[in-house]
Amino acid sequence: MSFEDLHLGSIIVSTVRNAPVLIFAAMAGLFAERSGVVDIGLEGKILASAFVSAAVAFATQNPWYGILAGVAVSVAVALLQGCIAITQKGNQLVAGIAINITMSGLTFVVAQYFFQQGGRTPDLGEARLSEIVLPGSAAVADVPVLGWIWTQLLGGHTVLVYLAFALVPLVHWVLYHTRFGLRLRACGENPHAADAAGVSVERTRYAAMLIAGILCSFSGAYLAIVQSGFFLRDMSAGAGYLALTAMVFGNWRPFYTFLGCLMFGFFGAVQIQLEGVDLPVVGRIPGALIQMVPYVVTVIVLAGLMAKSVAPKAIGVPFVKSR
C-alpha cells in the first residue's frame, strides 16, 4: 500500500468505530471521579466485562445475553471497588491497580480453563451484534459525499456506537441539570458540606460506582462482541488508562472528555491505516513504532495539560463523617 492509498474518509469512519470503547469508559470514570472516587480500575472492569460478554454470547449464541452478563460482572467489580474505597476507606489508587492486575490474570486463566484456546474465547460468529442499515441507504449509496455520509459515517454501525454518542449529552444533563448531579458534584468537591446539607456521601458515591460499572461494561462488550468477535488476553490494551487521560484532557467535563476520546480514537485509526504504508522520504515505518502512537500522544497530553486541569477537590480522599 502506498501513501496515496490512504483515505481520510476511512480514517474518519475508523475514528467513529474506535471511540465508543473510550467514550463508555471515560463517562464511567467521570461519574466515579466526580463523586470523589479515583477510578483507576477502569481497565480491569473493561477486561472483566469483555471476557464475560464474549463467553456468555458464545455459550448462548445471543449477544444481548452477553451484554447483560458483562453488565452484571462489571457492576460487581465496581461495587467491590466501592466497598474498599468508600466503606473501608482504603487507598483508592492501590485498589484500582489491584483490580486491573487481578482481572488481567483471572480472565486469562478462566478463559483457558473453559475454552482451552490459549486464554481466548472461540470466535463468536453469528453471536455478534449486527450493524444497522439506515433507511434509504441503497438509494443514496452511489451519490458522491452524501452516500458516504449516510451509509458509512452515520450508518453501518451497531447500536452500541449510537448509544455511546448519545451518552455524552445525557451525561452532561445528568451532571449539570439534575438534583442527583448536583449532589454528586458536591460529594466530589466538598463532601463535608454535602453531608451537612443532608446528602448521604457514601450512598451517592456508591450510586456513582454503580453507574460507572454499568457504563464500563459496554466498553468491554463493544471490544469483544463488536470489534473483535472474541476475547483475547489484555485486549483492552490500555483503553481504561486512555479514558482516564481523556478525562484529564476534558477537565472532568463530559463534552471536552468526549473530544479527548475522539482524539485518541483518531490516532488509533491513523495507527491502523499507517501499518504497511510506504510514506514519502521515511518509507515504511515498523509496526512497533506505529503502535506507540496513541501512548506517545497520551504522554504529551498529560505533560501539557496536567497542570492546567482542575480535578474535583475531594477526589481520592476517603470521607470520614464529622461528629
From TrEMBL:
Task: List the InterPro entries hit by this protein, alphabetically.
Answer: ABC_transp_permease
**Chief subcellular site?**
membrane
Q: Mind listing the GO molecular function terms for this protein?
A: transmembrane transporter activity
Q: Does the keyword Transmembrane helix apply?
A: yes
A GO CC annotation given for this chain: plasma membrane
Bilayer-crossing residues are 6-30, 42-59, 65-86, 93-115, 154-175, 206-225, 256-274, 286-307
Alphabetized, the UniProt keywords read:
Cell membrane, Membrane, Transmembrane, Transmembrane helix
Query: What high-level taxonomic lineage is stated for the organism?
Result: Bacteria, Pseudomonadati, Pseudomonadota, Betaproteobacteria, Burkholderiales
Q: Which CDD domains does the record associate with it?
A: TM_PBP1_transp_TpRbsC_like
Q: Does the keyword Acetylation apply?
A: no
* Topology with respect to the bilayer: Multi-pass membrane protein
Q: List the PANTHER family hit by this protein, alphabetically.
A: GUANOSINE ABC TRANSPORTER PERMEASE PROTEIN NUPQ, SUGAR ABC TRANSPORTER INTEGRAL MEMBRANE PROTEIN-RELATED
Under which name does UniProt file this protein?
ABC transporter permease
One Pfam match, by short name? BPD_transp_2
Q: Which residues form the signal peptide?
A: none
Annotated source species: Pseudoduganella lutea
Q: Where in the cell is it found?
A: Cell membrane
